Amino acid sequence: MTASWTVSQMPDCTDKTVLITGANSGLGFEATKAFASNGATVIMACRSTERGRRAAIEIRDSIADTGATLNVRQCDLASLESIDAFTTGVERDYDRIDILCNNAGVMAIPRQETEDGFEKQLGVNHLGHFALTGKLLDLLLENDSPSRIVTHSSGAHEMGEIDFDDLHRERSYGKWEAYGQSKLANLLFAYELQRRLEAANVTDTLSVACHPGYAATNLQYRGPEEAGSRLRLGLMKAINAIVGQSAAKGSLPLLYAATARDVQGGDYYGPDGVGNMRGGPEQQSSSEASYDRQAAAKLWERSEELTGTTFTFVLD
């Protein structure tokens, strides 16, 4: 693994089925493009199928004929009903998934709730992906070749704290505190999932995590737009232009975690530059709180209760 690692070093993905949430924009768009360029079948899980179809057309027009298939499907991670409908359709039409990329997310938005009453950042970034992964687990385990589950976190997890007494931040809400909590939850989930796979003697399915550093995407704009702050929106655009690396560069840790041959279960990848904000993918350590097994087990239990999703690690 070196700072010069690029998509050109990705293994051939022909005959691989990849599912990416948030596939129509930003990091998800770039990851979808990279997988398709390497011949994969990509299930593009998008909140808006219209935007998903436009993205798929753009990707097809920009890559050579690799035999890739892009399948756009509607999935709103802020709705357990939508997740259930989406996973039911995927299970009907596919007999396996090789790579699941839990990528979609929202960042630093005014307090909102999902359709099911969850604080939206926790609901979309963590609980939605928890339910999605649990419902698709059989397709990852029922596989003749190794499979991976990659969960996208953020350096912002370091400021996160799981408030089990006010998980949905009903008593006290700060948009960045809630975002940090959701990104810490991503890591607690990814690591706990790997531990549970190992406890069930599942060796061919790995759970790993990553973060993009500072990648300039539309994710940074949603909070100011929803708050109606033109000043903050302009400031964020300026910061993105000066500090951020491209979405294509930001997607490299995700792509490395999903495909590189030296990846191990429980690994965490991010950019190797100053402050881990830019650069090529490397293995890193996350915060001390992210390795708290007691907190991870408690969050897992709460996530099962809230989503009604249980994970079955042993197949019939």
Automatic annotation (TrEMBL):
An example of a Pfam family matching this protein is adh_short
Instruction: Locate the coiled-coil region(s) and give their ranges.
Output: none
Q: Write out the entry's keywords from A to Z.
A: Oxidoreductase
| Region of interest (Disordered), ranges | 269-294
What Gene3D superfamilies is this protein classified in?
NAD(P)-binding Rossmann-like Domain
Q: What domain of life does the UniProt record list for this protein's source?
A: Archaea
List, alphabetically, the InterPro entries matched: NAD(P)-bd_dom_sf, SDR_fam
Give GO MF terms, alphabetically: oxidoreductase activity
Per its UniProt record, what NCBIfam families does this chain match? PRK06197.1 (NF004846)
Name listed for the protein in its UniProt record: Dehydrogenase/ reductase 1
